[in-house]
Amino acid sequence: MIHFKNSSENHTGFTLIEVLIALAIMMIVMIPVFMAQNRMTNTIAQYTWLLQRTLIADDFLYKSKRAIAPDTQQTAAENMISNPPTKMLFSINKVPGDSILKNFNDIYIEKVNFEWSESGRLRHTALGGYVYKPKRKSS
To answer: Using H for helix, E for strand and C for coil, what is the string for the chain?
Structure first.
């Protein structure tokens, strides 16, 4: 605090300059905090959309598996949803020849590929697994 000696009254408090300097220091300290909060909020929003797409793709995988015959060995189905805008492709295929599982004849890959546009970039990921489908013996 600054005290003026030529003043006849006893004034206490902060001057305008002191308050402005304190506000400037607080602003410099708080800018990185606000920037980190903004990055964190954007990251949470991206992962929320990814989780929602993954749950929708899981549902699409389940419904597609139920819609095909149990002995189907190769198929594909496509679906487009609007919220969030996502294109999904379900497929059942033989295990590739370079896989360690190639020696097992009845192992197949069930997979849902899903893709979407985010910030002008095309993004994609997949959800899937292996399934054992033995050939039925005719009686």
So the answer is: CCCCCCCCCCCCCCCHHHHHHHHHHHHHHHHHHHHHHHHHHHHHHHHHHHHHHHHHHHHHHHHHHHHCCCCCCCEEEEEEEECCEEEEEEEEEECCCCCCCCCCCCEEEEEEEEEEEECCEEEEEEEEEEEECCCCCCC
Buried b (16+ CB within 10 A) or exposed e, 90-118: bbbeebeeeeeeeeeeebbbbbbbbbbee
pTM for the model: 0.67
Query: 27: which 2 tokens?
Result: 């602003």
Query: How many CA atoms does the CB half-sphere of 48 hold within 13 Å?
Result: 7
pLDDT tens per residue across span 15-73:
999 999 999 999 999 999 999 999 999 999 989 988 998 899 899 988 988 888 877 88
